[in-house]
UniProtKB/TrEMBL annotation:
SUPFAM superfamilies: YhbC-like, N-terminal domain
Origin organism lineage: Bacteria, Pseudomonadati, Bacteroidota, Cytophagia, Cytophagales
GO cellular component terms attached to this protein's record: cytosol
CDD domains named in the record: YlxS_C (cd01734)
Biological processes per GO annotation: ribosomal small subunit assembly; translation
Main location: cytoplasm
Location(s), subcellular: Cytoplasm
Family: Belongs to the RimP family.
The protein's name: Ribosome maturation factor RimP
Length: 147
């Protein structure tokens, strides 16, 4: 139902949660796009979803619907989210418990090419770009910088 509410193939679902409150459950749909997503698209998706829920469960169904985009501080959860962040710094938590920080050079079908920044004797050194497989990443966040 949710995918059918999206305005085009460039948009995709990042997350969907339904609270377990029986009285008035809250449905939260997090949507992103290959080039990001704007307020107009989110409004359109909200209207479409509301119509579909009303048709399926009746207009008297008690629920709260929130359609949102991932915030800047939210982790990247889909491989489709990476390409538009090329050139930005990423902070990666790896499946083995280690962490990596570096510039996202590109995203591939298998993972990300990262120019990792490491500290050596109080200096920062940038390593040659290397592929980090998605399967090795447990969490990825864009490092927000105000330069």
């Amino acid at each position: 139902m949710l995918e059918a509410s999206l305005p085009g193939p460039e948009y995709f679902v990042v997350g969907l949660t339904v609270s377990d409150t029986a009285v008035r459950p809250k449905i939260t749909a997090t949507i992103d796009g290959d080039q990001g997503i704007g307020i107009d698209e989110l409004g359109s998706i909200t209207r479409r979803l509301t119509r579909q829920i009303d048709e399926a469960y009746g207009e008297d169904a008690a629920y709260s619907l929130e359609v949102t985009s991932p915030g800047a501080d939210q982790p990247l959860v889909s491989p489709r989210q990476y390409p538009r962040h090329a050139g930005r710094m990423l902070s990666l938590k790896m499946a083995d418990g280690t962490e990596k920080t570096g510039t996202l050079e590109e995203a591939t079908a298998d993972g990300v090419v990262l120019s990792e920044v490491v500290k050596e004797k109080n200096k920062k050194k940038t390593l040659e770009p290397a592929l980090v497989p998605f399967s090795d990443i447990s969490e990825a966040k864009v490092v927000i910088s105000f330069k």
